[in-house]
Specification:
heterodimer; A: 298 residues; mainly alpha; MetI-like fold; 14 helices; flat; B: 411 residues; alpha/beta; D-Maltodextrin-Binding Protein, domain 2; five-stranded mixed β-sheet; four-stranded mixed β-sheet; globular
Chain lengths: 298, 411
């Protein structure tokens, strides 16, 4: 049959493109998939300083979920994640919408808002540590101005420390989201605005009902960027509070690093990082299914 | 000179240069001694080592042992070993030795008779695994010290306390004068150190040994440790309002008379010295909180990763021998504020506090440090517990229960 004779050739279609992608495929298989599998396997062992294959079943996970520090870390990440996601999107979009109103000096504002993104989390953390320090920062400045009872000391209070970190995180991250949103807004055809105006729809309503639904791909991009930033939250906390006061600003990534290296207990660290992977998968897989799986049907 | 001549001259020059470098080996030494007093002390090592014709490449890693140790260990594991490195001797290097990544110093130690000169002998025991010696101890550090500011107590109008009980009694006066009674850096290890110090002072040596060395969870959950946790809860009240992070910033509060006292290891001494303060006049130190004059004998030691290069190996041995030599021991420990590892040297130039320490050491009132008794894993768990205990209103009984559970699970 003619089709059978042609079939082997298919592999050689676009041969150069396939050869070119071999290094990346290998990297993905060996580094990402292989490394992940290696980590998961070793999380069932009681490896201490060096990885060893002495299996202990689910012991590491049992210990992990009965450790207070881990539970606090998860709670903190959930709180930070939710608030950071919501506020970054809202503030980012709001700033972009304001800039989009063809204001004077747009470039200046854009630069100012984007500037913090150029700083690393470590620098951001240190700067905010000083700003929020009760003896040097905002609190002291306001008190010197005459408002003696003014209090702004979130970082030394276990109940508010995560909000302090959130503020620093937002300050650093919203600029980028704003720029992405602005690009999205500029991609909207001018005629849409004209049509909306002709129909007598108000500006705010146009944004909410017409523009935002049209910007869906932009929102998806922003969402992925924000989400990945949340999961890997580590350096900001280290620079700002180092997990303190007490355990009140610990995050999962910090637990992993601490147990792998400082406590010299690789098994425990691997178990924690596997749990991080699982939680990402739980959120990501249904979303990816809806986002990309749905398109095939439609 | 024609070209050929100049080339051969150049060749000769290069040969000479190469021959020269083969004698002066560069040795990278990593450590985490970065505060003022510590840096001055480590410079003594560098000076002595450079004087032998080798070159000390300083690899200081900022941010205390918790930050530096992972970097050091991953470099050794990753096949990029430094020439020598500081570690706290004890169980931190156990697995590295088992994997054969650290150099065996037994030959040198036997030749120089370290067994006879190192005092207390527990220091060398901590370097020993299966009868072989793997590290050169350089100093003895003890954690059980209370540092008191004379200026602060004068301002509050009370006498400088002579023990922990008096300190607690004087605390309200300090508070009235607007001073911080107890300075405490908000980091787990410092809180753990304060707890350990209170433990030894309140529970005494026997109960401590039973818990930390024999891992007896029943004692840890028992009445003696109940008192310990209650005393720690009282200390927690005194430390409220202390917002600094690093230990030397907390020490600075004592130096500048803003806080009454600090529980910190004898390395705090170096900070007082750098600030030009005199023991007995500007500040007082109370070993064992003035209650139980017992010191632990933790400390720093140098380990030498296995390297291939023969010249480097030789330089490593020379450095190891130098570190325990009498003169270097005196110079280093005077700057560092720690105690020397050998009992046969003259330390009459040491100040009040060091003399106190030396006397306790000579009397043999010593116990092994937590680093030697507990694995880093258990230590980290206890630190986490302490970080929570000191910064929240966690009841003493709850903390004791969690503590007993950690001891129960410890290896």
């Amino acid at each position: 049959m003619p089709t059978d004779a042609k079939r082997p050739l298919r592999i050689f279609n676009n041969l150069s493109a396939k050869i070119a992608s071999i290094p990346m495929i290998l990297t993905v298989l060996v580094v990402f998939v292989g490394g992940t599998a290696w980590t998961v396997v070793h999380s069932f062992t009681k490896s201490k300083l060096l990885p060893k294959l002495n299996f202990v079943g689910l012991d590491q996970y049992e210990r992990l979920w009965s450790t207070r520090r881990w539970l606090v870390s998860i709670e903190n990440l959930a709180l930070y994640g939710l608030l950071s996601l919501v506020f970054t999107l809202i503030i980012g979009f709001f700033l972009a919408a304001l800039l989009d109103r063809k204001i004077r000096g747009e470039a200046v504002f854009r630069t100012i808002f984007l500037y913090p993104f150029a700083l690393s989390f470590i620098v951001t953390g240190l700067a905010w540590q000083w700003i929020l320090n009760p003896d040097l920062g905002v609190q002291q400045v306001v008190r010197d101005l005459g408002w003696a009872s003014f209090e702004l000391n979130p970082l030394n209070n276990p109940d508010t420390v995560m909000y302090g970190i959130l503020v620093a995180g937002l300050w650093q991250g919203t600029g980028l989201i704003m720029v992405i949103m602005l690009a999205g807004l500029r991609g909207i055809d001018e005629d849409i605005w004209k049509a909306a105006r002709v129909d007598g729809i108000g500006t705010a309503k146009t944004y909410l009902k017409i523009i935002i639904p049209m910007m869906r791909p932009v929102f998806v991009t922003a969402l992925v960027l924000i989400a990945s930033g949340i999961i890997k939250l580590y350096d900001l906390v280290v620079a700002l509070t180092n997990g303190g006061p007490g355990l009140s600003s610990e995050v999962p990534a910090k637990y992993v690093i601490n147990y792998m290296f400082r406590a010299q207990n690789l098994g425990q660290g691997f178990a924690a990082s596997t749990m991080m992977l699982v939680s990402v998968a739980i959120i990501l897989i249904p979303w990816a299914y809806l986002e990309f799986g749905g398109r095939k049907r439609g | 000179m024609n070209i050929r001549q100049s080339i051969s001259a150049l060749g000769a020059a290069v040969t000479v240069a190469l021959a020269g470098t083969s004698h002066a080996t560069e040795l990278e030494v990593t450590h985490w001694w970065t505060s003022g007093g510590e840096a001055a002390a480590v410079a003594e090592f560098a000076k002595a080592f450079d004087a032998t014709g080798h070159k000390w490449i300083d690899g200081a890693i900022a941010g205390s042992g918790g930050t530096a140790r992972p970097i050091i260990i991953s470099r050794i594991l990753g096949g990029d070993p430094m020439g020598a490195t500081q570690l706290n001797h004890g169980r931190q290097a156990e697995e590295l030795i088992e994997e054969g990544l650290l150099t065996d110093l037994t030959e040198l130690a036997e030749k120089e008779g370290w067994k006879d000169i190192v005092n207390p002998s527990s220091l060398l025991d901590a370097c020993t695994l299966d009868g072989r010696i793997y590290c050169a101890p350089v100093n003895i550090h003890s954690a059980q010290w209370l540092w008191l500011s004379h200026g602060a107590f004068k301002e509050a109008g009370v006498d400088v306390p002579k023990n922990w009980g008096e300190f607690v009694a004087a605390a309200p006066k300090l508070k009235e004068a607007g001073l911080q009674p107890l300075a405490m850096g908000q980091q787990g290890w410092q809180q753990n150190l304060a707890f350990g110090t209170i433990t030894v002072a309140v529970a005494g040596m026997d109960a401590w040994t039973e818990v930390a060395v024999n891992k007896n969870a029943e004692v840890a959950a028992g009445p003696v440790y109940k008192e310990v946790f209650e005393a720690a809860a009282a200390a927690r009240e005194l430390a409220k309002g202390s917002n600094v992070q690093d230990w030397n910033l907390a020490t600075n509060l004592v130096i500048t008379n803003k806080a009454g006292g600090q529980i910190m290891g004898d390395w705090a001494q170096g900070e007082f010295q750098v600030a030009g303060q005199v023991a007995g006049e500007d500040y007082t130190c109370l070993p064992g909180l003035g209650v139980n004059e017992i010191l632990d004998t933790g400390g720093d030691a140098f380990y030498f990763p296995v390297v291939k290069d023969e010249e480097t190996k030789k330089a490593q041995m020379e450095l190891a021998s130098l570190l325990v030599s009498p003169e270097v021991q005196v110079n280093f420990n005077l700057k560092k504020g720690s105690l020397p590892v050998r009992g046969d040297i003259d330390l009459s130039s040491a100040n009040d506090c060091m003399q106190k320490g030396l006397k306790i050491l000579a009397d043999g009132n010593v116990l092994p440090s937590g680093d030697m008794a507990l694995s880093p894993d258990s230590q980290t768990q206890i630190e986490d517990l302490m970080a929570e205990f000191w910064s929240t209103d966690m009841p003493a009984a709850d903390a004791q229960a969690s503590y007993a559970a950690i001891i129960e699970a410890a290896e």
